[in-house]
Amino acid sequence: MGDIHDERRDALEAAHRHALEWLGSVAERPVRPEIDVDGVQERLGRDLPAEGLPAREVVDELAAAAGDGLMAMGSPRFFGFVIGGAYPAALGADWLVSAWDQNNGSRQTTPAVAAVEEVAASWLLELLGLPAESGVGFVTGGTMANFSCVIAARDAVLRAKGFDIATGGLQAAPRVRFLAGDQVHTSMVLAGRLAGLGPPQTVGADDQGRIDLDGLERALAEDPDAATIVALQAGDVHSGAFDDFVRAIEVAHAAGAWVHVDGAFGLWAAASPRFAHLVRGLAGADSWATDAHKTLNVPYDCGVAIVRDEAAMTAALGAHAAYLPAVASISDPYDRTPELSRRARGVTVWAALRSLGRSGVRRLVEGLADAASALADGFRAIPGLEVLNDVVFTQVCLAARDDETTAALGEWLRAEGTIWASSSTWRGRTVVRFAVSNFATDAEAVRRTVDAVGRGLAAVTAR
């Protein structure tokens, strides 16, 4: 056993050294990767070696081969795909989660991590103003959080119509209508497909992506007796806009529909009184999904599925077998996710919340929004640029005088390396989208970003 202990120690010491080197470089290195997939594979070697290596050498070889192919997603100037950084406490907890190696399925077999996740879940519900009795499952990300909630919703609305999908199966089930606004996120579309519902029927949206309430009401009235799920958004991926939850939920519930809220990054607005107007009525929904590795800044991966009726959640997602330990009156972690086997990812949520406290989460959320507003102000001051969205939260969509120039600006910025922002199409125009998600995005990061955009515009218009 001494040899195994030494090898583990050597591997972890090497990983610690390489991790600190990487983290120390992130703030100043080019955000873009320096080499592509083929370049990393050339360094790794594509043929499986006949003989192995000691653990330390494996870690060293991995770090040397992969380092130049890493995207500096933890950079305060990374604005792509709504990806946050990692708070130190959450990162440290994540390392412990790997070392503990607990398969967090059962409260009986993994009491420590199950307890930590349950505390984290109760803190989340309190922080976000959601019903305390809700079921909470820690999944991989927003897509699986949406999927988990849609599965619970699907089964519940069918059960309300007298059909038990657990015994009857989906092929024999009545049709379930799935409604959403025109700007529904692709993860919500995928959740519908995976749940066997197909993509949602869209009912319209306003110019910021908020669901069209009149369109929703008309769609609901078309078949008032149908089993129906309505998907709303807390934070449009382009504009950051929030649906009118008060009216939308009222209309949907009057028609007997289940209301789900996709709040991958925007659900966290509920942690700040400053954004209470954006989330008014949010707690009246039936389920909610979010990502902790976005706004909360915990390491990948950690999505959160929340269902008001925990019994509906466990009926849809729960696992049952003679060999699985269970207490009839208390749900287990594997009853609230689609997985039997998983890492204890909710421990990082506990660590982030314990590190920040209620006031720290509020400052985090408000700081991200402030940085987005500062970016928008800086961009508007550059002649030839336009901010297309109403900057209400953490998203900024930037456009130049024409689509060709905007596309060239995005490519220049990603190649130059000071920042990294995604290109997209919104409201019929090409945009460069800035999603502010990293707790480290401060005034200096904003200044450098605005400067880079100004230099990029000058470069592409001079061609």
Automatic annotation (TrEMBL):
Residues modified to N6-(pyridoxal phosphate)lysine: 294
Entry keywords, A to Z: Decarboxylase, Lyase, Pyridoxal phosphate
GO biological process: carboxylic acid metabolic process
Needed cofactors: pyridoxal 5'-phosphate
InterPro entries linked: Aromatic_deC (IPR010977), PyrdxlP-dep_de-COase (IPR002129), PyrdxlP-dep_Trfase (IPR015424), PyrdxlP-dep_Trfase_major (IPR015421), PyrdxlP-dep_Trfase_small (IPR015422)
Molecular function GO labels: aromatic-L-amino-acid decarboxylase activity; pyridoxal phosphate binding
Domain of life: Bacteria
Family: Belongs to the group II decarboxylase family.
Protein name (database record): Glutamate/tyrosine decarboxylase-like PLP-dependent enzyme
Organism phylogeny: Bacteria, Bacillati, Actinomycetota, Actinomycetes, Micrococcales
